[in-house]
Specification:
four-stranded mixed sheet, about 80 residues, globular, single chain
Length: about 80
């Protein structure tokens, strides 16, 4: 199964970006740690959260979506459901 990946902030992260995933464009973004595709992070101080998962999934054919594009898509989806 392939999907989309994006670096987005989470609540309480002080702007730190972590990897978010989804398997279909109509699904909401989910932090990588909540997904079965996630792998253990590298033991690197201050390293990017989700980098190991990103590398695994990118090699498996997943697509990286820019943060700006993901925010635009999410905003449009929220308008449709409002």
């Amino acid at each position: 199964m392939t999907g989309q990946m994006c670096w987005l902030p989470t609540l309480g992260s002080n702007g730190e970006l972590i990897l978010h995933l989804r398997t279909a464009s109509n699904q909401p973004w989910q932090p990588y740690r909540t997904r079965p595709e996630a792998v253990q992070d590298y033991d690197i101080p201050h390293g990017s959260k989700g980098w190991a998962t990103y590398q695994k999934l990118r090699h498996s054919g997943w697509t990286l979506i820019s943060t700006a594009q993901a925010r635009t898509i999410t905003f449009r989806q929220n308008l449709k459901t409002a």
